[in-house]
Design a protein that fits this description.
By secondary structure, this protein is α/β, with parallel strands linked by helices. It contains 4 helices and 24 strands. About 15% of the residues have low confidence.
Length: about 325
């Protein structure tokens, strides 16, 4: 092989290596440039996010057959978690914690989250939620908020959709009421916030999202909140039996960690996450970058062959 031929082979190898490195680096650069502010944290930090149920004055799991995904904890006015495993309830993906460092830290994080969420500007007043379809946003009532029938939460194609319900005193759902969350994705968040009040979910309610209450949370029988949490500051959480609670979300909400997304906290201020189409744009952009590199790689040798043919002619 002549020197010119060796030089040509070497140049081709260098071009291919350069293209490979470009293709490998492009997704990394895109991810770095679109990464969130490192100083921002999740609305529900790690200790708090590990709990499916956290009662400020303990937890009472009455009846039989409740299913809980995530930890159950009591702290700090009282620490008892009553109910027998597996008769009263079964638990997966977590532990039962009566006091302790993690539950204490989680209570501090709960206070921070309630304060930050309560600091959002009051939104559309909707004290009666039944029969409504609501897009992402803040909804508030200076006193009570009730649900009879079905409430639809439509994310509008935003995988990072955020709903916040600010309730002045009490949240009450009627028996067999339903909350549907759809047209969103793994970055979504739903928060029901009672900075001074309590929540009562009627028997056979199908609920979605995180209840953050200063006072008590009380459930009837056969209540399901399979993608959310029950969290109180100073009073207890009480289950009646055959209730299903936890952070084992499925379907379009899989990966949402109990609908705990939608925004970040920085210095006590909530910032909604940017709009992210479903499926999330990171996947689409990275796929596009890879395809573009492959196309470029295919075209470059073709142009090289054309130049070789032209020189020989």
């Amino acid at each position: 092989m002549t020197k010119n031929e060796l030089k040509g082979v070497s140049m081709k190898l260098m071009r291919r290596a350069g293209m490979f490195l470009l293709c490998a680096a492009a997704p990394a650069v895109i991810q770095i440039t679109t990464a969130p502010n490192a100083s921002a944290g999740p609305i529900l930090p790690s200790e708090l996010a590990s709990f499916a149920i956290l009662g400020g004055a303990g937890v009472a799991i009455n009846g039989t057959g409740s299913v809980i995904t995530g930890s159950v904890g009591g702290c700090c006015n009282a620490t008892a978690v009553t109910g027998v495993i597996p008769t009263n309830f079964t638990i997966s993906g977590g532990t039962v914690q009566m006091g302790g460092a993690t539950a204490t830290l989680a209570q501090g994080e709960l206070s921070t989250a309630i304060t930050a969420l309560s600091g959002l500007a009051p939104g559309t007043p909707d004290p009666l939620l039944g029969g409504l379809t609501l897009g992402p946003g803040v909804y508030s009532s200076s006193s009570t908020m009730g649900l009879t029938g079905t409430l639809n939460l439509d994310g509008g194609g935003n995988a990072n959709a955020l709903w916040v319900f600010l309730v002045g005193s009490s949240l009450t759902t009627a028996s067999s009421s339903v909350v549907n969350v759809f047209n969103t994705g793994a970055g979504a968040g739903v928060y029901w916030v009672m900075g001074a009040g309590s929540a009562t979910l009627g028997s056979n309610s199908t609920f979605q999202g995180n209840i953050l209450a200063n006072q008590s949370i009380t459930l009837g029988t056969n209540v399901t909140d399979p993608c959310g949490r029950l969290l109180t500051q100073v009073a207890s959480v009480t289950l009646a039996g055959t209730d299903t609670i936890g952070i084992g979300c499925s379907g379009i909400l899989a990966g949402s960690n109990g609908l705990s997304g939608g925004g970040t906290i920085t210095g006590g201020v909530i910032t909604p996450l940017p709009f992210a189409p479903v499926p999330e744009p990171g996947t689409v952009v990275l796929l596009g970058a890879g395809i573009a590199c492959l196309v470029a790689r295919r075209l470059r040798p073709t142009r090289g062959r054309q130049r070789d043919l032209a020189s020989k002619a």
